[in-house]
Each structure stands twice: as structure tokens, then as C-alpha cells.
Hints:
Elements: H1 3-26, H2 33-45, H3 50-57, H4 61-73, E1 77-82, E2 85-93
Antiparallel strand pairs: 1-2
Helix pairs in contact: 2-3, 3-4
Amino acid sequence: xxxxxxxxxxxxxxxxxxxxxxxxxxxxxxxxxxxxxxxxxxxxxxxxxxxxxxxxxxxxxxxxxxxxxxxxxxxxxxxxxxxxxxxxxxxxxx
Length: 94
């Protein structure tokens, strides 16, 4: 692999970690790392089903449901029934 490409990748990785760290600091004590990860997953997936978020995080549906409940209470997520399947819940960033 080209050394310049590796160096560019390392610099970009450090920048992204810095952005994530600043985002967590700006949220204060109210946002945990798992909650932040869930918000990132929801952002990446658009308006995913709770099961999609659970799969992406590698955790069970009940855990994600509780985590999303806290994010909804904090005003960071919305939950709604999937209009195509009433058995599914969709989440989205506010």
C-alpha cells in the first residue's frame, strides 16, 4: 500500500475520532457512548426499524428499545409505527 495513502487514512481517522469526542463532550453527562453509537447508526440508516438498530449494534431488541426510549425522552429520537407494518417501530433523529 502507498505510504501517502496510509498516512492520509490515519489523519482522516484521527479527525473523525476528534469529531466524535467533541460531540460527546458537547452533550455533557446526558449522553452515554452506547446512546451516541445508536444515534450514529440511526443517522447512517435513515429511519430504521428498531431491529435494524439492534442488529447494527450487536445487541438485543429489548436493550435497544430501552436505549431508544431514553433518547426519545431526551428529545433526540422519535419513534413511530411503520405504516407498512404495524408490528414494526421506526426511529428517526429529531
